[in-house]
Write a structure and sequence with these properties.
Elements: E1 2-10, E2 14-27, E3 33-42, H1 44-72, E4 77-81, E5 87-90, H2 92-95, H3 100-104, H4 111-116, H5 126-133, E6 137-143, E7 146-156, E8 162-171, H6 173-178
Antiparallel strand pairs: 1-2, 2-3, 4-5, 4-8, 6-7, 7-8
Length: 180
Amino acid sequence: SGHLEIRFDVSGEYKEYYDVYMIIEHMSPDGKPLSSVGMMRNITRDKRREVQLVEAKRSVEHIQHINQLILNNANSGLAFITPDFEVKWSNTQSMFPDKAVAKRYTEGVCCYRATYDNDAPCKGCAALQAMQQRQTVVRETKIEDINIRITASPVFDEADELQGVVLKFDDVTQEYEATR
């Protein structure tokens, strides 16, 4: 038995693709096939869809790459966390490269565990407040030696279901020092 994919080029413009399956029923004493049964199925439409999916995947990957470049070059630290406080994306490492907390604040970790090694959301958590109030919340805090302004904006889908929170981290240490 065997499987074969055959491609036909009709007049140099159009290709048809077929899956061909064959089973040899009888063999001669010297091992040559005497009879076989087979099936052929046109898979041209499937092949075209496959090409479209590959092209769409490349396009999405390119857009994601461009978005990543934009976000990594923003003047603020940015992160997206889910309603259960899992970090899904963060550029805090590029914004605060010499800070230990930024190195721990990576995709897949729990926000409050990465930041303060807590077992529950931090006291006065801007993300939790944004989720509960369903509106943007701004809060200032000190992490390591940096005064940070956190802006937490809830994200909702088309059905108005909470998907998570975008966190924006701005270093306001100089601003804070100037007002002292």
